[in-house]
Amino acid sequence: MSENILEVKNLSVEFHTPEGITRAVNDISFDIPKGKTVGLVGESGSGKSVTSFSIMKLIPSPPGKIAGGQILFEGQDLVQFSEEKMRKIRGNQISMIFQEPMTSLNPVFKAGDQIAEVLQIHKKMSQKVAMEKTLFLMDQVGIPKPSQKYHAYPHEMSGGQKQRIMIAMAMACEPKLLIADEPTTALDVTIQKQVLELMFDLQQKYNMSMLFITHDLSVIADIADDVAVMYRSNLVEFDTCKKIFSQPRHPYTKGLLACRPNLDKNPCRLLTVEDFIKDGVEIESPKVYDDKIEKNLDSEDTLLEIKNLKTYFPVKGGFWGRVIDNVKAVDDVSIKIKKGETLGLVGESGCGKTTLGRSILRLNPLKSGNILYKGEDITLYSKKEMRELRKKMQIIFQDPYSSLNPRMTIVDILREPMKIHNIGTNKNERVDRCKWLLEKVGLNQQALNRYPHEFSGGQRQRISIARALAIQPEFIICDESVSALDVSVQAQVLNLLLDLQDEFKLTYIFISHDLSVVNFISDNVGVMYSGKIVEYNTARNIYHNPQEEYTKTLLAAIPKGVPKDFLTV
Amino acid sequence: MKNYIIKRLLYIIPVIFGVCFIIFVLFNLVGGDPTHMLLGKHATAQQMEELRRTLGLDRPLLYQYFDIVKSAFTFDFGRSWNTKQEISTMIMDGAIPSLSVSLPGFILSSILGLIISVVVAYYRGRKIDTVVRIACIAGMSISSLAYILFFQWFFAYKLSLFEISGYEYGFPNFLPYILLPSIIWIILSIGPDVRFYRTVILDEIYQDYVRTARAKGLSEIVILLKHVLKNAMIPIITYVVIQLPFLILGALLLESFFSIPGLGGITLNALNSSDFPVIKAMAVLSAVAYILFSLLSDILYTVFDPRIKLK
Q1: In this structure, are residues B250 and B98 in contact, taking their beta carbons and an 8 Å threshold?
Q2: What is the per-residue DSSP string for B63-94?
Q3: A40 close to A58: Cβ distance less than 8 angstroms
């Protein structure tokens, strides 16, 4: 038997749709050695997830179909396996973890039972034995008090815990190969670090092979032995992890490595994949950006001043539904933002950063405090005055998929806020402005009469930005606006936001859990922890000279983006 | 949970007051003078006055309103103007034939509908799925009258398989009379049932947790029956429970064509003869039934979905 647990040979996968045949995976080959971790990197739509689903033979068929090639698992070709034979492999010999821990567990069954189910079907364990083994597994993946958490339902757990449950489920039968499809993308940095460490430990302990799929190279720098890079359905580079990071050969790989914001460098714009490869043609000498010049904001007016802002959410209880407690989502926050400044707000999920953003726009009722916009206290504004002011304040949300109405064309989406706020006198004027807006965010005019679903995630986020710009705002809150995007697309959108800021003198509050992104885009940064701003300073000082323990923990959790023993190469 | 149920039961009180008020206003302001209708055009003023007193219509309006409210709690609706029978007995007598037709039809069509939709979901996108979907639409497009007339003529009259119409009290005497209407009930409700259940199940089948279940190595049948069905139960419960009040109130058309002395027939007669107390009783009864059954569906939700907590 060979040294490889899995050998993918000339695999091609096609999707047969009424519009024609799409080749999602085109003739790719790679091996996963026993006991090693292979990273599979690429952007959404590059075919990396389809590859992993093909190994499990879980691609929806029809329309999907393995059009050619072999998938050799311990020398046996899985492509030829019957569904029944495949079922004995799934969850037993090869198991899989998915991106979305929130939705990947069945909401109506107990977490423990969902793990035990795997043992019952594959190992034919009795309910009692399976339960004992499950408790052991839950302990292994670091779930506190397994005997209690066994009976918990998924909604009673945090995202990190759910992903641990998924890992326990995948590890239950001690599989020879674990496929992890973006397992940490939806998690906060600190949780991501813990989950990555756990997966690495388990892999070492059980000498298991792992296929780790991600769009972010820096995540796998520490744990992958080999890396395969996929670009537009093709495998463009397959080499050891060190080689990929030190001597990337394909321009796409070079672009991927360059586009991630890096804490050590401070360029004024990020390089994007397009700076290295455009329309499949390699660009020989990519641009070099100068370092960011720190803005001199001293002379600028204060645009927004927040004084002792508190937002509490009441907890009701008892027979009459009295308020028995308060969740202090925003607890006594004071900040000043100058015109043209970008204030970054960082913190983990639940720290109150989104609530703070919404409170500033008065989308949440406030408990107390003042919000001064150009010196006027907007907490005293009536609904009508507030509506007038919203013209000046906009928000861009995280999810570009659900924040655009799927039944409206782009021109209608962009025109709607203009109509509400009386911008432009007639239809033609507004359509002209839409064209101009699309040009500003780097989209073609042909986009006007199309619908949101015809665009990619990055393009949709550009449309959201265009919509926010439609009514000439002065101040924009970006609430995790780039978190759902691939790193390569994220770099483009971040550059766009900076270009627009320069051109229109915009002021941003940039909310994100990703510290490297916040560092890149912000002038000043506030670190939030349970409703309070625990540290506030210039971006440079926060990252190079953090004072608070919590800030240090956050910084330590950022993937370094280079292999551990990189310097010894 | 116990607190929640008590609270919900207490909510019934203001709702009943409201419902009774609407009924009261409708009958007193819009309905016209019932004595006119009962005595005809040539009645003397004295006759009308006398009748008014015997019916209790001369009492203060507030008293009359509270009579309706009281009846909602005691289920004592007085006597019918028409038959002079105790209304509560009339309802009890009518409910049994109504339920004997509707209940078996309802239970069987729900179970059958669920089974068919699980099978169809399993074969989604294939030929059998298309055939069932077309059959559902076709079945729903034909008027219920067509079924009733054709079935009576063909199965009961031509083939003499069933009784054409009529009813006999007591088990098992009523069986031959309820078979045909029950079958028609099933045919009428299975089309919309299957279409609804199928949509709900297919909505669930594309969820991420189903993908996880497949990756675990579960078979498609186990996934459908265990993982998907439990998640699909919430919309299904809502759909099923909302139909329950109709079962008691009876199917007007079926009952009148098959001469079944059920509540549907009683209501129809009362409407025809302006038998106000009976109509009022039916209106109050259906309001109470709706409130109780919506409470029942809320409680059932918690059985299937741990995310729902009643507080």
Answers
A1: yes
A2: HHHHHHHHHHHH----B-TTT--BHHHHHHHH
A3: no
Average pLDDT over residues A181-201: 86
Total residues belonging to chain B: 311
Closest CA to A114 of A167, A59, A182: A167
Q: In what order do the strands lie in the sheet with A507-512?
A: A393-396, A475-479, A507-512, A342-346, A524-529, A532-538
- Taking CB atoms and an 8 Å limit, are B215 and A153 in contact across chains? no
**In chain B, where does the domain assigned CATH 1.10.3720.10 lie?**
88-271+276-304
Of A107, A118, A317, the CB nearest to B216: A118
Instruction: Walk me through the domains of chain A, giving residue ranges and CATH numbers.
Output: 1-93+176-248 (3.40.50.300), 103-172 (no CATH), 339-365+379-557 (3.40.50.300)
Residue B211 pLDDT exceeds 50? yes
Q: How far apart are alpha carbons A67 and B51 in whole angstroms?
A: 88
Using the Cβ of B2 and the Cβ atoms of chain A, whether some distance falls under 8 Å is answered with: no
- What's the ipTM? 0.80
A161: nearest Cα among A195, A122, A124, A132: A195
A91 contacts in B (CB within 8 Å)? 215-218
Cross-chain CB nearest to B218 (options A56, A100, A121): A121
Give every strand in the sheet of A4-17, ordered side by side. Answer: A20-33, A4-17, A64-73, A76-77
B130 touching chain A per CB within 8 A: no
The tokens describing B17, both together, are 């007051």
What digits encode the pLDDT tens for the residues A136-151?
A: 999 989 888 899 999 9
Using CA atoms, how far apart are residues B135 and B147, in angstroms rounded to an integer?
15
Q: According to the model, what pLDDT value does residue A210 have? A: 95
pLDDT in tens, B2-46: 888 888 888 888 888 898 888 888 877 766 677 777 777 777 888
Q: Please, which pLDDT band fits residue A30 given cuts at 50, 70 and 90?
A: very high
For A58-108, the pLDDT digits (tens) are: 988 778 889 999 999 999 999 999 999 999 999 999 999 988 888 899 999
B-chain residues within 8 Å CB-CB of A108? 230-231, 304-307
Query: What's the Cα-to-Cα distance from B48 to each of B37, B61, B94, rounded to whole Å?
Result: 10, 18, 31
Question: Which among B212, B215, B217 has CB closest to A105?
Answer: B212
A104 neighbourhood in chain B, CB within 8 Å: 208-209, 211-212
Nearest CA in chain B to A53: B215
What is the predicted pLDDT for the residue at A509? 94
CA dist., res. A565 & res. A110, Å (int): 42
CB contact under 8 A, B217 and A106: no
Q: Is A466 on the interface with B (CB under 8 A)?
A: no
Smallest CA–CA separation between B219 and chain A, in Å? 7
Q: Which three-class secondary structure state does DSSP give residue A384?
A: helix
Residues A104, B208: C-beta atoms closer than 8 Å: yes
In angstroms, how far is the first alpha carbon of chain B from the final one? 6
List the one residue out of A473, A401, A467 whose CA is nearest residue A437: A467
Query: Does B219 have pLDDT greater than 70?
Result: yes
| Mean pLDDT of chain A, nearest integer | 87
Superfamily of domain B88-271+276-304: MetI-like (1.10.3720.10)
Best residue in B3, B122, B129, B212 for a mutation probing chain A (most A CBs within 10 Å):
B212
Q: Distance between CA atoms of A559 and A215, rounded to whole angstroms?
A: 13
According to DSSP, the β-strands at A302-317 and A368-373 are antiparallel
